[in-house]
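Worked example 2:
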Amino acid sequence: MHGLQTFLQLVATTPEGFAVPSITVQDQPRFPWRGLLIDVSRHFIPLDVIKRNLDGMAAVKMNVFHWHLSDDQGFRVESKTFPKLQELGSDGLYFSQDQIRS
């Protein structure tokens, strides 16, 4: 996946079409953990914004996504066992279990 992102960053548009330079890439991360934390437990962020952030993470080769979904100030995941959690802890702004899986 990271190799594909590097390749896409090298593609150039020319009058004749697309061109990619002939190069050798020796690419390795400085740190093995390059991630992003998004805290939706306190401030809800719509799913399309989360997915756009994931696309941006892939473009810059970030490899860890931490999605903070619950704490004492909010509960943003649908609970089929304890529905009062999302009812009282989300003001109606929570992610369904299917949205979390996608």
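The first helix runs from residue 2 to 10. Helices lie at 2-10, 47-59, 83-89, 97-101.
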